[in-house]
Design brief:
The structure is a single chain. With 265 residues, the chain is α/β, with parallel strands linked by helices. The chain has helices spanning 40-47, 69-73, 92-102, 109-115, 131-145, 161-176, 188-194, 223-233, 256-264, and strands at 2-11, 14-24, 29-33, 54-61, 76-79, 149-153, 180-184, 197-202, 205-209. It has 2 domains: 2-75 and 147-264, P-loop containing nucleotide triphosphate hydrolases (Rossmann fold), CATH 3.40.50; 87-146, no CATH class. The strands form 2 sheets. Strands 5-6-7-3-8-9 form a 6-stranded mixed beta sheet, with helices on both faces. Helix 6 links the parallel strand 6 and strand 7 (180-184). Helix 3 (92-102) packs parallel to helix 5 (131-145). The relative contact order is 0.16. Bound molecules: adenosine-5'-triphosphate (ATP). Residues 11, 16, 34, 36-42, 52 line the site of adenosine-5'-triphosphate.
Length: 265
């Protein structure tokens, strides 16, 4: 379990998230949704121990003690968007080879390249790749690491519909084998299809929609209002009474776009 406890994130004096807590379980795909600038990237980086912001609180990686930095790092991989992970002068194949070596991956370059459909441009330098190709490569690198927890920043951006479906299937298959995935996204229909749970950033807190949250009270006319209030009143854990929005599994009773509109519009 990747556990976030009482996390506060700020830049200068500006607090983005205050005292938030949640767990990313192995085998779970969690969507992370909020408008631009609400702190999704900052949260994912903090979870990967990439300290861009000021961070207080605790992040636990399984049962590993905090001082076992290398072992913790080996279980968590953050994949940024927009190809910023990549080296423009290196080829696609070089990136996979480097990742395989650094992460001591058991996967073969050919297998990952074929599965992620980057095998057709392995010898292309990143600077000559399209935006979508760079994103395909970023995801191929993430899968190659074999990390138990993948933190994916807008992973479906720039991908064509075929590649969105391909990567959705790969993520689902990884989750079935125990990988925990959290992905920020503005593509809400994909978040609906893929996520077991969805975290929304709201009022510097988190609102969780997912099957493990307790069911909303029957008398609640709008489960959202109860969810928001619950989170605001209880910063300790992002498990407000919002579970009625989801059936179990990826199928979602309420669409993310409806929840989004109710939270932010
Ligand atoms: N290095 C930094 N120094 C100061 N402020 C920053 C820094 N990085 C990000 N911010 C600010 O923190 C806020 C949250 O940024 P972040 O990138 O985490 O948002 P986001 O939810 O991922 O946005 P988007 O959906 O646009 O990608 C923004 O207001 C941004 O300007």
């Amino acid at each position: 379990m990747l556990s976030v406890t009482n996390l506060t994130l700020s830049y200068g004096g500006r607090v983005l998230l205050q005292n938030v807590s949640f767990d990313l379980e192995p085998g779970c795909i969690m969507g992370l949704v909020a408008p631009n600038g609400y702190g999704k990237t900052t949260l994912l980086k903090a979870m990967a121990n990439i300290k861009a912001a000021r961070v207080t609180g605790a992040i636990a990686v399984d049962d590993l003690p905090a001082n076992q930095v290398a072992r913790r790092r080996a279980r968590v991989f953050y994949a940024p968007g927009e190809g910023t992970l990549l080296y423009p002068g290196m080829t696609v194949g070089d990136h996979l080879a480097m990742t395989r070596k650094l992460w001591r991956s058991q996967s073969s370059i050919d297998d990952v390249a074929r599965a992620c459909r980057v095998d057709g441009f392995l010898s292309k330098r990143v600077r000559a790749c399209s935006q979508g190709m760079r994103q395909q490569l970023t995801l191929a690198i993430a899968y190659m690491t074999g990390a138990r927890y993948l933190l994916l920043d807008e992973p479906m951006n720039a991908l064509d519909p075929t590649n969105v479906q391909l990567n959705s299937a790969i993520m689902r298959s990884l989750a079935q084998r125990g990988t925990g995935i959290i992905m920020s996204s503005h593509i809400l229909d994909n978040v609906d299809q893929l996520s077991d749970k969805i975290l929304f950033v709201k009022d510097k807190g988190l609102v969780l929609f997912g099957p493990s949250a307790p069911a909303a009270p029957a008398s609640t006319a709008s489960p959202l209002s109860s969810a928001s209030a619950s989170t605001a009143a209880s910063p300790a854990h992002a498990a407000p009474s919002a579970g009625a929005h989801f059936a179990s599994g990826p199928a979602c009773a309420s669409k993310a776009i409806d929840i989004y509109n109710e939270l932010y519009l």
